[in-house]
C-alpha cells in the first residue's frame, strides 16, 4: 500500500493521526506501518460509537441443564462412550491462550505464571497434568492445539519447549496464532504503541476456529479424523479437559456442543448463564441479565437461569464449518492499553483507558442447533485465575487446589 492509499483509508475512518510521525521513520519502519494500515480493519473501531446497539438479545427462555444426579446415574455409560471416542482419536483439545491477562498484571503469558508456594507450579503445568489423567485412562494421546497471539507466541512456545511440554508428547501438540485488532481511546481514536505501530490486542477468543483454519490446523484435524474439539481457557487450573464423561454425555445426547456449567453461587454472580435465545441455545452475560431474569423460577421452583458457563465447551467439528462464513458479534471491552503519549513516552496505564474489540467463543453457541449444559461440581472443577488477589485470583485458586489435594 502506498502512502497516498494509506492516507485515503485513514481519512475514511478518521484516523489520520496514525501517520503523524511518518516522515521521521526509516524506510523499513515506514513500510511496516503502511502494511499494518493495509491489514487493519478500522470498521471494528467504529463499533464503539454505537456500542449500546451491538449484541441486542432476542427473547430469552430457560434451557435445562443435565444436573449432577442424572450425570452420576449414567456416568459409567457416558464414560465408556467418551473413552471409546478418545481412544479412537476423535477428540482434540484446544487451549485458548491468546489473551493478555491484563488483570493478573504479569507481562508473561498467563500460562507461565508460577502459582507454587514451596515449589514451581505453573498454570500450563496444571493444565497438562489434568489432561494427562485422561491420556492415562484412555491410553491414548489427545491432540492438543494451542492458540497464541502475536504478543505471546514466542514466549509461550519457548517456555513449553524449555519445560519439555511438562511430559506431554510433543508429537501431539500444535500451535496456531489468532488475529489482532486495533485498540482505541474512548473517542475511537486508535492508540499508537510506537511511532510506526498502532496499538493492537488479540481479537478475542471467538476467532479460534477461523484462526485454526487460517493456520492450516483444520487440515490436521481432518486428516486425523478428529470429530470433537474441547475448547478451554488457560486460567482454570482445576478443569478437566477431554473429560470422558462429558464427551460421552454430549455424544449420547446427540448435541452439536456441550458446555460445562456450574450452579451459580448467587443470583448476581458474574458469570454468563445458559439459556435459549429465540429458541436457540445461547449465553446471556451477567451484565445483560435483567432483575426479572435473575429472579425467574422454573417449574420446580428453582432459579431458571442458574447455570454459569466456565469456558469449557465440546464442539462437534462438523458443525463448525458453517461458522467460517459468519461474523461473530463484536464486544467492546474497556481495558488498559499501553501507548505513546504526546511526549513520546511509553505509558502503561494503571486503569482502563480505552477499548479493545473482541469476538467471544460464547457467541458461537448461538450458532449451534443444540447444546447440552453439563453440570460440574464447582469446588472440583472451577478455579479460574483472573486477578492477583480476591475473587477468581491466584489466592482463591491456590485454596481450591489445596482442597483438592494438589501440593503447591
Ligand atoms: P479473558 O476473558 O480472561 O481475557 O480470557 P484475558 O485477555 O486473558 O484477560 P484480561 O481480561 O486481560 O485480564 C478468557 C480465555 O480466553 C483466552 C484467554 O487466554 C483465556 O484463556 N483469550 C482471550 C484468547 O485466547 N484470546 C483473546 O483474544 C482473549
Task: Write up this protein.
- The chain is of the alpha/beta class and 408 residues long.
- It has a single domain, classed as Spore Coat Polysaccharide Biosynthesis Protein SpsA, Chain A, CATH 3.90.550.
- Helix content is 29%, strand content 20%.
- The protein has a seven-stranded mixed sheet with strand order 4-3-2-9-13-10-18, with helices on both faces. It has a three-stranded antiparallel sheet with strand order 1-11-12. A two-stranded antiparallel ribbon has the order 5-8.
- A hairpin with a 5-residue loop joins strand 15 and strand 16.
- Helix 4 crosses helix 9 (244-252).
- The longest helix has 20 residues, at 68-87.
- The protein starts with a helix and ends in a 5-residue tail after the last helix.
- The model has no long low-confidence stretch (mean pLDDT 95).
Annotation keywords:
408 residues, alpha/beta, Spore Coat Polysaccharide Biosynthesis Protein SpsA, Chain A, three-stranded antiparallel beta sheet, 20% strand, binds uridine 5'-triphosphate
Amino acid at each position: 500500500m502506498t502512502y497516498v492509499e494509506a492516507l485515503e483509508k485513514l481519512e475514511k475512518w478518521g484516523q489520520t493521526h496514525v501517520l503523524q510521525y511518518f516522515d521521521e521513520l526509516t524506510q523499513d519502519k515506514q513500510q511496516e506501518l503502511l502494511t499494518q494500515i493495509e491489514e487493519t480493519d478500522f470498521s471494528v473501531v467504529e463499533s464503539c460509537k454505537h456500542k449500546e446497539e451491538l449484541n441486542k438479545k432476542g427473547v430469552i427462555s430457560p434451557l435445562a441443564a443435565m444436573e449432577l444426579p442424572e450425570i452420576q446415574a449414567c456416568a459409567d455409560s457416558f464414560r465408556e462412550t467418551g473413552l471409546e471416542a478418545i481412544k479412537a482419536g476423535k477428540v482434540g483439545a484446544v487451549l485458548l491462550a491468546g489473551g493478555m491477562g491484563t488483570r493478573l498484571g504479569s507481562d508473561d503469558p498467563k500460562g507461565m505464571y508460577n502459582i507454587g508456594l514451596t515449589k514451581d507450579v505453573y498454570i500450563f503445568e496444571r493444565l497438562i497434568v489434568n489432561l494427562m489423567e485422561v491420556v492415562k485412562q484412555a491410553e491414548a494421546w489427545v491432540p492438543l492445539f494451542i492458540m497464541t497471539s502475536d504478543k505471546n507466541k514466542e514466549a509461550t512456545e519457548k517456555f513449553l519447549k524449555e519445560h519439555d511440554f511438562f511430559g506431554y508428547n510433543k508429537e501431539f501438540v500444535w500451535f496456531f496464532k489468532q488475529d489482532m485488532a486495533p485498540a482505541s481511546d474512548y473517542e475511537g481514536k486508535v492508540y499508537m504503541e510506537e511511532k510506526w505501530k498502532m496499538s493492537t490486542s488479540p481479537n478475542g477468543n471467538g476467532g479460534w476456529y477461523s484462526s485454526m483454519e487460517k493456520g492450516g490446523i483444520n487440515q490436521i484435524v481432518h486428516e486425523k479424523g478428529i470429530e470433537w474439539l474441547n475448547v478451554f481457557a488457560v486460567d482454570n487450573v482445576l478443569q478437566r479437559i477431554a473429560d470422558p464423561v462429558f464427551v460421552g454425555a454430549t455424544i449420547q445426547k446427540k448435541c452439536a456442543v456441550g458446555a460445562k456449567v456450574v450452579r451459580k453461587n448467587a443470583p448476581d454472580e458474574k458469570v454468563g448463564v445458559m439459556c435459549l435465545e429465540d429458541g436457540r441455545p445461547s449465553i446471556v452475560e451477567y451484565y445483560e441479565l435483567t432483575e426479572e431474569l435473575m429472579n425467574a423460577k422454573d417449574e420446580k421452583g428453582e432459579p431458571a437461569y442458574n447455570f454459569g458457563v466456565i469456558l469449557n465447551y465440546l464442539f462437534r467439528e462438523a458443525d463448525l464449518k458453517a461458522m467460517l462464513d459468519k461474523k461473530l458479534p463484536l464486544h467492546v471491552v474497556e481495558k488498559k492499553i499501553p501507548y505513546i503519549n504526546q511526549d513520546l513516552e511509553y505509558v502503561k496505564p494503571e486503569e482502563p483507558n480505552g477499548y479493545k474489540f473482541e469476538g467471544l467463543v460464547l457467541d458461537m453457541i448461538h450458532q449451534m442447533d443444540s447444546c447440552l449444559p453439563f453440570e460440574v461440581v464447582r469446588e472440583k472443577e472451577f478455579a479460574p485465575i483472573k486477578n492477583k488477589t480476591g475473587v477468581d485470583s491466584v489466592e482463591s485458586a491456590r485454596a481450591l487446589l489445596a482442597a483438592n489435594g494438589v501440593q503447591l
